[in-house]
């Protein structure tokens, strides 16, 4: 069964209104003939601008006493149930109907078929595939152009003709019309989305050989995966062509998902992930105090680091971060180890340094600004655990920090009580340590108050 639908709309460009439906026509087609039809104006509960009235001839007076969408929603559900949603440029009509239902708190889902795409396949080589041009070239007369019923009836007549052409084509006659328009990526999309839950976790896209080609995370894996199929990027489309399967790990906690995703990307280095793939850290920004008690920052090779604040996978990124601190906190080049000791730094000469290097600024004032950076990139306690929600209501997630570094995560029953640090540590699955994991946890802790247990 097919529900051939056309809608008219208003809004979206004027008065910052969201577009709303002003008229809908549904024609139910069983693949041979039309078996039912429903048409109604709809009160959009918003102003119809002259621009849209000029297109559709639907005025504010015409819809004033018309039913609102929620009053015809049940009828639309009933008429389209177990039907393929058919329209000329189906994405437009389907998304408007879906959005109207979403505003009512209802998730409207139907299989779709586009008569533009079907026409391109069965009637190739036309200059235009707009409904008006296509119908004119095929001798289909439209009575009431840009009105829902007129356009829907014309689309139904076009649909009849397309079915006839399909049945006459030796390549397509044994295929159903939906099967004819189903691309491999559409089948993969359905398969992938049917497997993924609407929960928090990490998902893995796999190619036909079972190799991981992309790793992602989300608080809603289903919705995030769905967004991949709307990409217009060349690399994104290429990934979909390579996609054959999906796997996932539910985490419950978004922080656990962030940490697991970062670790897994470094471990597997998927072809289509752009960020977080580098697993070798080459440089670090260390900090220390000199004998006068003034805070110093210094770029050092990562394997020589003694008191690292943040680490990077190349020197240029390290230098860029340190220079951003210098600008943001008015730091001295000498005390960032970017000029020789005992000399006035160049920034002091151009009044971008307050003169700590020339003994014109008190160490206490300088250290206040430098300490803000240390606080931002350090944990306030060296040993603690963060408690987050688990994968099910009676479960909690635990993220462990030891000696100022992320160690790993685990899960425990919400009713459990712990008497020792060893018990807590025993719950944790140890992860490979990467310095950027500390940054993920620090950023997470700054977002809002979290449940933290000092150890």
Which tags fit this structure?
22% strand, five-stranded antiparallel β-sheet, alpha+beta, five-stranded mixed β-sheet, elongated, Nucleotidyltransferase, domain 5, 16 strands, 4 domains, GIY-YIG endonuclease
Describe the structure.
The chain has about 450 residues and is α+β, with helices and mostly antiparallel strands. About 40% of the residues lie in helices and about 20% in strands. The protein folds into 4 domains: about 1-180, Nucleotidyltransferase, domain 5; about 185-270, GIY-YIG endonuclease, CATH 3.40.1440.10; about 285-375, no CATH class; about 385-455, no CATH class. It is built from 17 helices and 16 strands. Helix 5 packs parallel to helix 7 (about 150-170) and helix 12 runs antiparallel to helix 17 (about 435-445). The longest helix has 21 residues, at about 150-170. The chain is elongated, with a radius of gyration of 31 Å. About 30% of the residues are buried.
Strand fraction: 15-25%
Number of separate structural domains: 4
- Count every beta strand, where a strand is a DSSP E run of 2 or more residues: 16
Q: Rough shape?
A: elongated
Specify the biggest β-sheet.
5 strands, mixed
Fraction of helical residues: 25-40%
Tell me the layout of helices and strands.
Elements lengths: L1 E9 L9 E10 L4 E8 L8 H7 L3 H4 L5 H12 L3 E4 L2 H13 L9 E3 H8 L8 H8 L9 H21 L8 H5 L2 H12 L5 E6 L5 E7 L2 H8 L5 H9 L2 E6 L3 H15 L14 E7 L5 E7 L6 E5 L2 H15 L16 H4 L13 H14 L7 E6 L5 E8 L2 E9 L7 H6 L1 E3 L4 H13 L3 E4 L1
């Amino acid at each position: 069964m097919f529900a051939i639908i056309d809608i008219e709309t208003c809004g979206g460009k004027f008065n910052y209104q969201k577009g709303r439906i002003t008229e809908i026509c549904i024609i139910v087609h069983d693949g041979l003939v039309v078996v039912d039809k429903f048409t109604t104006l709809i009160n959009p509960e918003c102003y119809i601008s002259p621009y849209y009235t000029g297109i559709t001839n639907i005025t504010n007076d015409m819809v004033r006493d018309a039913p609102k969408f929620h009053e015809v929603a049940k009828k639309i559900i009933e008429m389209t149930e177990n039907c393929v949603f058919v329209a000329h440029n189906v994405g437009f009509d389907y998304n408007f109907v879906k959005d109207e239902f979403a505003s009512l708190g209802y998730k409207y889902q139907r299989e779709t078929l586009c008569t533009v795409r079907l026409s391109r396949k069965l009637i190739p080589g036309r200059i235009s595939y707009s409904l008006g041009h296509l119908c004119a070239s095929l001798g289909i007369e439209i009575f009431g152009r840009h009105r829902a019923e007129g356009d829907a009836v014309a689309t139904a007549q076009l649909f009849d003709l397309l079915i006839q052409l399909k049945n006459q084509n030796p390549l397509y006659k044994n295929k159903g019309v939906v099967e004819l328009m189903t691309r491999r990526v559409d089948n993969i999309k359905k398969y992938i989305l049917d497997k993924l839950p609407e929960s928090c976790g990490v998902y893995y896209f796999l190619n036909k050989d079972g190799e991981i080609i992309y790793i992602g995370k989300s608080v809603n894996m289903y919705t995030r995966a769905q967004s991949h199929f709307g990409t217009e990027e060349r690399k994104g489309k290429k990934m979909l062509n390579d996609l054959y399967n999906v796997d996932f790990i539910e985490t419950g906690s978004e922080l656990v998902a962030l940490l697991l995703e970062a670790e897994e990307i470094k471990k597997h280095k998927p072809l289509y992930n752009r960020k977080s793939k580098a697993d070798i850290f080459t440089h670090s920004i260390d900090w220390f105090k000199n004998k006068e008690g003034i805070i110093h920052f210094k770029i050092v090779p990562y394997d020589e680091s003694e008191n690292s604040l943040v680490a990077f996978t190349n020197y240029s990124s390290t230098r860029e971060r340190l220079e951003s601190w210098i600008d943001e906190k008015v730091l001295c080049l000498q005390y960032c180890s970017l000029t020789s000791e005992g000399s006035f730094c160049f920034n002091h000469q151009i009044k971008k340094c307050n003169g700590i290097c020339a003994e014109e600024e008190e160490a206490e004032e300088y250290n206040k600004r430098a300490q803000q950076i240390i606080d931002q990139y350090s944990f306030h306690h060296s040993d603690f655990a963060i408690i987050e929600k688990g994968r099910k209501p009676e479960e909690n997630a635990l993220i462990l920090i030891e000696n100022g570094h992320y160690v790993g995560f685990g899960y425990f029953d919400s009713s459990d009580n712990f008497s020792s640090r060893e018990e807590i540590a025993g719950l944790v699955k140890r992860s490979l340590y990467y310095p950027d994991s500390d940054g993920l946890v620090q950023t997470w802790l700054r977002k809002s108050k979290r449940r933290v247990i000092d150890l």
